[in-house]
Amino acid sequence: MSGAHDNLKMGIGESDVFLDFQDKLSRVATVDRPVLIIGERGSGKELAVQRIHYLSHRWQKNLVAVNCAALPSPLIESELFGYEQGAFTGAVKTRKGRFEEAEGGTLFLDEIGLIPLEVQEKILRVVEYGTYERVGSSVTHECDVRIVGATNADLVELCRQGKFKEDLLDRLSFEVLFLPPLRERGDDIIMLATYFASKMASECGRKELPVFSPEVVDSLFSYSWPGNVRELKNVVERAVYRSEGPLISEVDFNPFRNPFKPAGTENRSEEKEEAETVLPESRPSEADEEKKGKGMKLESMPLEDFSLAQEQLDLIFLSRALTAASGSQKEAARLLGLTYDQFRGLYRKYRHLLVN
């Protein structure tokens, strides 16, 4: 099936976090229980659900997807469970719901956190008893459907706020898998970028495969990727189509930058990006700054300042490595004897201090 084929092509990655996620996903796929996929926008939640379906014993049956964010609340119930003729104005004939269409297969509820409470109650009944009624009918239908939900919301917090039923969350959370964001996947970024670049070059009729300059490679690694794989695909494809030849020497992370914007005005998207990459909890406290200003030697620092001493040591070696590597993070990681993933973790932790 084409869905399975696309999924296999998109399952690109060799980082530890990605392979660990794929391993967990493959194991739970064969167990006929509900699964929740938690991940940021653009991180590949739908592809993960496809993989679960096609690795399960239900793979020959339908995989039916419902985007709960795209449906008005009053329509979600009839969309999921169907309705009888005359159930409401406009119901001119009986219509099957998505549960019925997914019989024997998998029902994918995307943005599951947006489902209204009254509809959650009916889904809970399906999970517990395998039965439901169409809107406008008292006839009970049996169903055999595996539910896989996906969201980027905090479902536990939604339960605390009374917006999601705890009983339903309990039933759906046989396994909860967290999709690693792209920024945590190290060299997978270049692997995916190369794949997207070659596809775009072929689409543009180019004979030579694109090659990223060292500066572009560093910028791809350094960017925070709030839009994850989907954003990477756009950035790379845009760079390939704009390039004059196979060498990609420039990428544009913000195509909405207005070249005609009056000088001196703030760029809101750039402010947002900076806020996302410098987390508040990463900033040093005033006490820490005061200690650093005193120029204490590590061996003379009080034992309770162990974490501060470790931070200073990390900063010294990160700065030295980056200087020796002329700013190349991959080379700096090699000089320190670290994997690129390990180096990136340290760099993200101390980036705000290295810049200052």
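That was protein one. Protein two is written in the same sequence-then-structure order:
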Amino acid sequence: MTKTDRAATSGRFFAASSGDTLQCELCPQRCRIAPGSAGFCGVRANRAGKLHLPFFGAVSALAVDPIEKKPLYHYFPGCEILSVGFLGCSLRCPYCQNYRIAHDTTARTQYIPPQQLVQTARNSGSFAIAYTYNEPTIHIEYLLECGAAAHRAGLKNVLVTAGSLNDAPARELLDLMDAVNIDLKSFSAEYYRKTLHAELESVLGFTRTAVERCHVEITTLLVPGATDSDDEIHRIAEFVARLNPAIPLHLSAYHPTSSFRTASTPAATVHARAETARRFLRYVYPGNLGEQTETRCPACGELLIQRNGYRTVLPGIASGGTCKACGRETDIVRH
């Protein structure tokens, strides 16, 4: 990573502990960081008693993606979005799909200051910037600066996150976000604690706060024998429905990674869990199956959106955003 002309790298969201030790207050890990060390995430460090951000602006991945890849199905459908990833993570999911950038801070990066990223988004023709790929919230200082610059430039901000963040930083960050996909990995506090090394309640709190501030969609990965039970999805769908039954829920099939070799989730399981979730929610989408998905009007059943892979068409939505057949307002955010 090129460190020439690096921006300021002092961090926020910490408190003094004993001596020069710091306690990070960003996420539920609440790491006590000794001088010369980094926290659980690997990217927030203690330099001489100050919280230091050695990876501020260190971009590990940059691409223009379909918005459906986030996945966001009800937010600017059919549009492309500049997507940016960093390094590090505040969880330890054994089936991580992006392990190289999430848990290896030696991965190759390029330094992109916030204003340059905003200009890159504008040059690409993107309507927004998506902060994604790793766990972006551990780079909150960068996201806050970039998010504010994006809004000044007329761009939207999209966050793809596990939602493991303490309340005060979550509120500050979400005030700048226009859409969020939250990876609700389980509804078991024990599973979060023992397997993911995280806290379920903080994710639920983050989700409640997000729903108050921006467009929200939820994703749950159905890992066989871990998060794919009917009871698990029943509880997740019930929780989401209490917030808003129009929130889309994506139930994604798991596929083996290099470090986690459990067999893939059967398509039949994904579809069965989707039926369970539909008892509570208007919009439930099976994912990672390579199948066509549809969004239909909950009032009359008219086909509103059809997706084949990442090719998206909107045959049933009128120019004003209503259902062409019955005139009902759709639960879709468009231009």
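The first strand starts at residue 14 and ends at 16. Keep this in mind for the problem set.
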